[in-house]
Specification:
By secondary structure, the chain is an alpha/beta fold. It contains seven helices and twelve strands. The chain is globular, with a radius of gyration of 17 Å. The relative contact order is 0.14.
Amino acid sequence: MQRPRFPAQMPEARNRTSPAKPISNGKPTAARVGSRAASTMPGAGPQSLGLDSPALRQRMLHRLTAQGVSDPHVQAAMADVQRHLFVDTALVNQAYEDTSLPIGFGQTISKPNVVARMLELLRQGAAGRLGRVLEIGTGCGYQAAVLSHLATEVYSIERIRGLHDRARENLRSLRLPNVHLLFGDGMLGFAKGAPYAAIIAAAGGESVPQAWVEQLAMGGRIVAPMSAGGAKQALVVIDKTPQGVQHSVLEPVQFVPLKSGLA
Ligand code: SAH
């Protein structure tokens, strides 16, 4: 596969936004995060306030384990990523609490235990890393960073330009060459990266878009919140098997809405 380049924009998005940024050869669609990494290491700045201490993440991990998160790969990934680097300065002291937090533009970062639960479901207890994974709803980029430890490649789509830019900024110093940020409408998936071993959505719609099922590899899994009638949402797992597509509805959840188009 051709190595993606800047700027991070999907072809569909290019067609709908004007003026489009110039692209050197007309082909690139995804940004490779970290390729222009800043020289500073995460947590080294004056705002770090000791929040980069591994002890804080270990405490979060103990809580997650007590809540039933048992997949060692997910545990290790959650223990590795510094969540405070992704939240607003005014809220960093809550970064390792089990709480969802606002990330601007009316959106929120999910609770750590919801992130861990979904990633566990996504992995299905796999022995090693998943292959290519598509994430719908980059938000601040936190979950994409956790996913970077669990998948060979992560394609993450965001429809709000300001958040897409913020995620790129947040992820830059982490130097994660396998994370590709895309600006576009995730309801269309990202056909160029398909087939995906797994697809995870951080925003809930009325139904799971057909494009996601089409772009999922055989044997792959989608984990997404979905409206279960009215304002209620539930976590849904969709498995693509040779016998057909199987849906399971799990526990109630609360996610921001999946919206079409760009903002
Ligand atoms: N995983 C994120 C959570 C972000 S909240 C994190 O770790 O921060 C969900 C995000 O989904 C929001 O940023 C919202 O803008 C985005 N979203 C909603 N509908 C979308 C769509 N159709 N395509 C792409 N992103 C979408």
